């Protein structure tokens, strides 16, 4: 097919950009009608930016205060670190706008600002390699700019001494706190020493220890003397015990008449009662009397009064009793001596313990005294440090001075409103122009023949309302010639021509009517089949029953000489019934016998793919209608590829209603 050569024009200037083929003449033809949009956007952006900057960006005024730093000419700063603190110049500049200073400025000027907002309006700079500081304030009123600059400078000078003396102040505060703590500790140590002496009743350690040593000496002498007496008593006790072993314990005391024994016992008992009144039951006299009564009682019980006239009374030997009493006396004295020895030993040990306790108390008391001495020395040292730091605070004066206060500015600072408006206009123009160009370049719709497959393109029709009539009819004549060539390429010279599109209202009826007129002028008999909806109330010349084999006869509607009209109705049956290709081909051949050309205006492919495939798969010339600036490329290509996959040929594509500028581009 040579349709491409018939509809081709002179080669246009083209450029390749990032793999995208751009037709500059075509691009210009689409953009020139909308070129006013970027300019309008630029004007709107510039004007709106100018208005916004006038509203949001107020005129700013700048005032400057100059501060100088004098040299103290200190020869040696290392020797007097508390009296002088040298701060780096750049460090000082950083301290001017600290938050505390800004809060004081806001309070003095009664500004409704935050420290952050005020910080943005103050500029601190140093004179070129000099000891000059420039404090610049920028504000919307010139008078307030002057006040802000001078106030910031004044607050800095007022607070510089505190900044300079901050180290000395911290040292002074530290030493004062330590001095207070140390004094309290000294008082506590003195009180603890006094309480210690009172608790342990200490007057003089030396006197008390000397007294204890003398007491130990006296106790040791008494202990030795008591030990000698004890040894003597122990020897006497031993001799007495040895004598007792040689003397009988009992001897006959007297012979008594049996009748007189009872009266004798009673008399002894009375004597025993008298003795108990004078002595204890452990007294030897009481014990001897009790023994005597017991002996007489036992003898009187064992002797019969009638059998004997008298009785011998036995009792303890008085000598034995005397020695026994002497032994008891020696034992008691020995016991007393042993107790005395134990008491002396206990006294000696207690005195030694007292000496040890005094020694421990003396060490504890010495620790209290050492602590008091330590705190006294610390308090003395801290008092000296406090005096030094206080002297530093009073001696380290400021070395800054204002040499020139701020003057009211004559002119406001440059606001760059016009520059921002021009920049915004350029930006708006650039962005809108790029968007406009991109919308044209990446528009997915069909615009020119370059958007279609040149091998299948058989005609390009301009918009009839925008071009001269001869241009339109010339283009249509070329379309008709290419259509005839397309029909001649079919194997059996089919009489059927189908026209379809991807959407409704893309020009099928217009082209069908135009082709019908041409064939009628050639004297050919034409059948025009129109596809209509079920609701269009068409009840004659309907092909549906014939095509689906429900009827064998049909009667077309005669419109005029050599032309008949028929309808294909989109009703529910076409979706429920399957169209057989073989029977359809027979039906089309039967219909075509009475006509030279059958033109069928079809429905979009996606409406009924099976019906669409069967109709177009019959020996026919298939025409796809594409409307410029309306039909999407992907939809058209999808239908074209679908027909190709089904091996449906021949296929021709017609581009209609191309705008004048694009058509001539």
Automatic annotation (TrEMBL):
SUPFAM superfamilies: P-loop containing nucleoside triphosphate hydrolases. Keywords: Cell membrane, Coiled coil, Membrane, Transmembrane, Transmembrane helix. The keyword Ribonucleoprotein does not apply. Residues 21-103 form the Polysaccharide chain length determinant N-terminal domain. Signal peptide: none annotated. Residues 348-378 form a coiled coil. This is Polysaccharide chain length determinant N-terminal domain-containing protein.
